[in-house]
Specification:
Elements: E1 13-18, E2 21-26, H1 34-38, H2 41-52, H3 61-68, H4 70-73, E3 81-84, E4 88-92, H5 93-112, E5 126-129, E6 151-152, E7 161-162, H6 166-171, H7 177-180, H8 212-215, E8 241-250, E9 255-261, E10 267-272, E11 278-282, E12 291-292, E13 310-312, E14 325-327, H9 335-342, E15 349-351, E16 361-363, E17 390-391, E18 416-418, E19 423-425, H10 428-455, E20 459-462, H11 469-477, E21 481-484, E22 487-490, E23 492-495, E24 509-512, H12 515-522, E25 527-530, E26 534-540, H13 549-563, E27 569-573, H14 582-590, H15 592-595, E28 599-601, H16 606-614, H17 619-631, E29 649-654, E30 661-663, E31 671-673, H18 677-686, E32 704-709, E33 712-717, E34 721-726, H19 729-732, H20 735-750, E35 760-763, H21 768-777, H22 780-785, H23 807-816, E36 821-824, E37 840-843, H24 846-855, E38 868-869, E39 875-876, H25 885-895, H26 898-905, H27 913-917, E40 954-962, H28 969-972, H29 983-990, H30 1008-1013, E41 1032-1035, E42 1040-1043, H31 1044-1053, E43 1058-1061, H32 1074-1082, E44 1084-1089, H33 1094-1102, E45 1106-1110, E46 1127-1129, E47 1140-1145, ...
Parallel strand pairs: 4-5, 4-23, 5-20, 23-24, 26-27, 26-29, 27-28, 34-35, 34-36, 36-37, 40-43, 43-44, 44-45
Antiparallel strand pairs: 1-2, 3-25, 6-7, 8-9, 8-12, 9-10, 10-11, 13-14, 15-16, 15-17, 18-19, 21-22, 30-31, 32-33, 38-39, 40-46, 41-42, 45-48, 46-47, 47-48
């Protein structure tokens, strides 16, 4: 690990015996320095890294002393600079692709300069998780009380995608007999649905060895305990029944079909071809023998086929009941015969046995006349073995005159194969289609990344469809303590995503850095940082049962924004921390960028160890972790105040003061109590345009916009919810809030509540583990019923990959200039980020996402207004469907199991067959494809000289943009969709791409031509030169209004330098390196701002752009700057970090601060950027 010279601290190297194994470690307490015990736990990690890596070259003994003397060092007004070498780097694909592109281009540059390109290689471990590419093109569920035959707004390219099955789609809603008797918004819409159409085609082909019925079962054979979620009728089934065309052999070898029953758990009614034998089969091993599955479902053309000989399921199909008998050929059954046999029956009540039972009976059934033609059975009464029955209302549906399924092959509506879990799921229609589109759109990117995984050492790539980077990091990648060649040391990480801080909740020091800085770390460079102050955040008290970790983190975010923690570490302590689960802590750490700190750290304690055990970490490794951390005094007992270190300052939160909250409408730290939400939103409508205002005239507040959707009339108004997304690792990593949301959905569905069909609902978990425990707990069907279907495993809505809204909704919003809303369980809600048409966006817990989706609006006072009306016409309030904390905890204990983590993560790199089939080029150097619009060699190193160019001045620069406060990296370099009238769209169209093929800016970060044109392309960008929001500016010399890129291009052609003026918090938001690369390519030489977000300032430095800051509270306005002046920046040859310099503005001079904060940053600037510096270093 050490660099140039011998480590002067090798005397601290000692042996640590753990079980039968012996390890080496640097014993920091052996320093016998009382200052060590006073250090915050997060600073102890920095100290250990400095001691272990001390070589008196990159890390010097004076650096170690500075960290050890942290109390004094942080009081130095000039700041004390120290190096830090993280143990590893983590990337996501939006930032990972440009990082690998840079590595490929750097290899080319090194070769051209006469060096060895293989030197450009990661030195430390690098993990790259592909999670940012999948979009919510398909979403929603047909069984959410809206009826069949709907269309989503999620088709690729803005089209619509039928929710109907094949026959409905072929014959149309008005002609489909089943749809005629089941209308959305009718009383019947809340009743179970029996649909007549055929089972969709399976990804398995005829002759496949995957058993049919086995595909409908969970791949993990848990012994499911009695679920506390259903105390009176545990595992009782109820809900929608569907005949799916699944020919099977029953236990007596009688051919039959399956009635699929939705409910916890998934189960089936097996009906023989003559409709006389009905048996119940759940998916547990105890009752699996009830049905002997056929291999594949085919459309029937004859009554019965000969019975083939049974075979044995081969072992090479993991996830199925291997060894169970099955038949290589299915029976063929005439659909008409089945339909006629069932058409005269009616179901009144269903009482099913719990899991493991082999049969059931229909209660209170009666024979109907032949002309009533309703589905059911004439069976004698067989009561359930335990618990009470669940009544389902009668549903009559004509079935005898149905068309044959082979006549209408259309779009599948249910039970397709989940590509990640390899099992059939009613959710996976949207999931599979979204993932198929992801591969279709991003194949070039994925092939390139696969090349990188082979060509670059120490790089692990986690394929698409696996989860969100931070949740995968938390559940699997994090080491907590490294074991490198029997040397133990703390895990630490930097990532190219600002929410890398989520891992702080696991006791791992980590934070987000710019992609450029991360690349330097990958090449062995230390991070140069000013030793931070540490704010001790004391947590006391207990949380009210109605509050969630989301409410806690939104409270903390607002509080710490008021305290001011930018550039500081925050370390949590106090007895209240012991009340927080590990997942709660991770949620709080996740939103660290939103409250402005560098880290939000929870030291390791017994709760951490329990989490490692529950997530299936190796028991031997857990013993090493605990023993090591105790040996170096990094293991915490939050109940023991004697362990409290010294902090720069202490602030306190009493958990009892936390109330249910959301944040918005435009910033994550603008917390609003749910009880005040209605009043706050109505105030925002009329407030002047700003973070809490839309500037709407009073007479427009009550405007309504009627529109037609799916043949029904609806009305939008200000405050209407049009997007509701349970998304983001912030909350989907937390089983408590996810299961609570599922339990709320259950209670809501049981009361007959539903979500309006035009609201785009979605569920995008951060890992496959979430799917397993939701299914295992039995809440899955209720989430689906409300439309919260699994649409993909990735960031999705949280990063703006929300996909299009239904066209009718979009037009109603635009035509009436409505302030419609998105509600999401994410961490960012900056204007224009979630969707261009949702001007107001609120961060909320998954429970509140569901609540506002059901309500359909955000201007509701849940205390006094009902959330809806139940089946009996009674008002339902939010409190009526809010699950108790005790129930949530019981369900969590019963449902979140270590085996789930094992099942998901043992195949994490090989579980995606699409990824496995990709063929990537090989070789040290990448063969660039000139025709590619995704991957292109960047111009950053073209014609780069061997020697550093040194300091350069900026002479008579024009201002490209004059911006206000809180301009985010989303404003600077948006990640979402590419507008059809934008410079990037014109470029892609010139390359013969259609609008459907544009994809997103985030997915095209490997192509500088697209990204330069996408810089400042956010439609919500407010430029003071232009009277309204939009990606436009004024070309000052001519006065012409142009797209930002076109104006920059004209300045370039005129050989005129350009700069940017900005307000406070310039570059806040995501750690987006293209927010610095893009301005560099536009020709921006400097930025003058009131203040900077930490990571973005670092990125500007990394690209050689000069960051300047107004003094004290000065601003462009206070200095009388219009932005139409000419600016000259003369830099002295003897630059000093943080020095004051003069800027000539026309005929006068202003003084500003130079925001190169360290000597290393000055060195990067002299080289033209950090990567240029690294290349020259490599060839020396």
């Amino acid at each position: 690990m050490a660099g140039e010279g011998p480590n002067p601290y090798n005397n601290l190297l000692e042996d640590l015996q753990v079980g039968n194994s012996s390890f080496k470690y640097y014993n920091l307490p052996a320093l016998q320095d009382e200052r060590y015990d006073r250090l915050p736990f997060s600073i102890r990690v920095l100290l250990e890294s400095a001691v272990r890596n001390c070589d008196n070259f990159q890390v010097k003994t004076e650096n170690v002393e500075s960290i050890l003397d942290w109390e004094k060092s942080t009081n130095d007004p000039k700041g004390v600079e120290v190096p830090f070498r993280p143990a590893r780097v983590i990337l996501q694909d939006f930032t990972g692709v440009p990082a690998v592109v840079d590595f490929a281009a750097m290899r080319d540059a090194v070769k051209e300069l006469g060096g060895n390109p293989e030197l450009i290689n990661p030195i430390c471990p690098v993990d790259l998780v592909i999670d940012h590419s999948v979009q919510v093109d398909f979403s929603g569920a047909m069984s959410r009380g809206r009826g069949e035959g709907q269309e989503s707004g999620g088709g690729p390219g803005g089209g619509t995608v039928p929710r109907t099955c094949g026959n409905c789609g072929n014959y149309g809603k008005s002609n489909c007999p089943a749809f005629q008797s089941f209308r959305p918004n009718s009383p019947r819409a809340r009743r179970p649905l029996v649909h007549h159409h055929s089972r969709p085609s399976s990804p398995w082909q005829p002759g496949s060895t995957a058993p049919q019925a086995a595909r409908s079962s969970s791949p993990m054979m848990y012994s499911r305990p009695t679920s506390p979620a259903y105390p009176q009728h545990s595992n009782t089934l109820h809900g929608a029944m569907q005949i799916s065309q699944s020919p099977v052999y029953l236990v007596n070898q009688t051919p039959g079909v399956i009635l699929s029953v939705a409910g916890p758990p998934s189960a089936y009614m097996a009906v023989s071809a003559d409709a006389t034998l009905v048996t119940y089969n759940s998916t547990s091993t105890a009752s699996y023998a009830t049905l002997v599955p056929a291999t594949y479902s085919v459309n029937p053309s004859a009554m019965y086929s000969p019975l083939p000989q049974p075979q044995v399921a081969p072992q090479q199909h993991p996830g199925y009941y291997t060894g169970a008998p099955y038949y290589s050929q299915p029976p063929t059954i005439n659909n008409t015969v089945i339909s006629e046999k069932l058409s005269g029956l009616d179901i009144e009540d269903i009482s099913l046995r719990p899991m493991g039972s082999r049969s059931t009976r229909f209660k209170n059934t009666r024979r109907k006349s032949e002309d009533s033609r309703s589905v059911g059975s004439t069976m004698s009464d067989m009561s359930s073995s335990r618990g009470s029955s669940v009544s389902t209302p009668s549903l009559k549906m004509p079935m005898s005159s149905l068309p044959s399924p082979q006549d209408a092959p259309g779009i599948p509506i249910q039970d397709t194969i989940c590509p990640f879990h390899r099992e059939e799921s009613s959710w996976s229609n949207a999931l599979q289609k979204n993932q198929e589109l992801e591969f279709e759109r991003n194949k070039e990117r994925f092939v390139f990344l696969k090349w990188g995984s082979q060509a670059l050492k120490n790089m692990l790539i986690v394929p698409p469809g696996s989860g969100i980077v931070h949740q995968v990091n938390l559940e699997y990648l994090a080491r907590v303590v490294f074991n490198e060649n029997k040397m133990l040391f703390p895990d630490s990480v930097v990532g190219t995503d600002s929410h890398t801080t989520m891992i702080n909740g696991l006791g791992v020091v980590g934070w987000g850095v710019g992609g450029i800085e991360a690349e330097a770390v990958m090449l062995g460079q230390t991070i140069s940082m000013v030793l931070p102050k540490v704010v001790g955040y004391k947590i006391v008290g207990e949380l009210d049962f109605v509050c969630t970790s989301t409410d806690v983190v939104l409270t903390i975010t607002k509080h710490l924004r008021q305290v001011g923690v930018v550039g500081k570490f925050v370390e949590f302590f106090g007895p209240g921390v012991a009340q927080l689960s590990l997942a709660d802590r991770a949620t709080i750490s996740n939103m660290c960028p939103e409250y402005g700190a560098t880290v939000g750290f929870f030291p390791v304690d017994s709760t951490t160890i329990a989490y490692l055990e529950n997530t299936n970490r190796d028991s031997g490794r857990i013993q090493e972790i605990e023993a090591y951390l105790k040996a170096v005094k990094m293991f915490r007992n939050f109940e023991d105040a004697s362990q409290d270190p010294v902090y720069s300052e202490i602030v306190e939160l009493n958990l009892a003061d936390v109330v249910p909250s959301v944040s918005g409408p435009k910033r994550p730290h603008d917390r609003v109590s749910v009880s005040d939400m209605k009043k706050d939103f109505l105030s925002c409508l009329g407030n002047k345009v700003g973070f809490k205002g839309f500037g709407m005239a009073p007479e427009l507040h009550a405007i309504t916009a009627p529109f037609e959707y799916e043949g029904q009339e609806y009305t939008l108004r200000n405050g209407s919810v049009v997007i509701a997304a349970i998304t983001s690792c912030t909350n989907t990593s937390n089983p408590s809030v996810m299961l609570a949301a599922g339990l709320m959905a259950k209670l809501a569905v049981e009361r007959g509540l539903s979500v309006k069909p035009y609201i785009k609902t979605s569920l995008s978990p951060g890992s496959g583990v979430v799917t397993h425990y939701l299914q295992h707990s039995g809440v899955t069907p209720y989430l689906k019923k409300l439309g919260f279907d699994i649409v993909g495993y990735g960031c999705m809505t949280c990063i703006g990959n929300s996909g299009p809204l239904p066209e009718a909704v979009q037009q109603a919003i635009e035509k009436n200039d409505l302030v419609c809303c998105g509600v999401l369980s994410g961490n960012r809600n900056f204007e224009g980020r979630i969707h261009p048409s949702t001007r107001a966006n609120y961060l909320a817990s998954p429970l509140l996402v569901i609540a506002y989706a059901i309500a359909g609006r955000v201007d509701i006072d849940f205390e006094v207004e009902p959330i809806g009306i139940d089946n009996d016409g009674q008002q339902v309030f939010l409190r009526d469907i809010w699950p108790t904390r005790k129930l949530i905890q019981e369900v969590e204990r019963a449902s979140v199991l270590p085996e789930m983590f094992k099942e998901c993560y043992e195949k994490i790199t090989t579980g995606n067959e699409e990824w496995n089939r990709l063929e990537a080029p090989v070789g040290v150097l990448y063969s660039w494809d000139a025709s590619s619009t995704y991957i292109k060699r960047p111009p950053f190193f073209e014609n780069m000289p061997k020697d550093a160019p040194g300091v350069h001045n900026v002479t008579k620069a024009h201002v490209l943009l004059n911006l206000g406060d809180s301009v985010t990296t989303d404003h600077i370099s948006p990640a979402g969709s590419i507008a059809r009238n934008s410079p990037a769209a014109r470029y892609l169209a010139s390359r013969n791409l259609t609008t459907r093929e544009f994809n997103s800016y985030g997915s095209r970060r490997g192509n500088d031509d697209v990204m330069a044109r996408g810089t400042f392309a956010n439609i919500r960008l407010v430029n003071k030169f232009v009277g309204k929001a939009g990606p436009r500016t004024i070309h000052i010399p001519s006065g012409d209004e142009l797209d930002v890129f076109d104006a920059a291009e004209r300045y370039r052609q005129e050989n005129k330098p350009i700069i940017i003026l900005a307000g406070k918090e310039y570059g806040s938001g995501s750690s987006r390196d293209w927010a610095a690369k893009g301005p560099f390519l536009l020709g921006v030489k400097a930025v003058i701002a009131m203040s900077y977000e930490r990571i973005h300032r670092s990125n500007l430095v990394g690209m050689g752009i000069i960051p300047l800051q107004y003094l004290d509270d000065q601003s462009a306005e206070s200095l009388g700057l219009t932005g139409k002046e000419l600016y000259t920046i003369n830099l002295p040859s003897n630059l000093v970090p943080g020095m004051k310099i003069a800027v000539q503005v026309d005929e006068r001079t202003i003084e500003v601060q130079l925001r190169f904060d360290t000597e290393v940053e000055l060195e990067y600037f002299r080289h033209g950027g950090i990567l240029n510096y690294m290349i020259r270093k490599m060839i020396q």
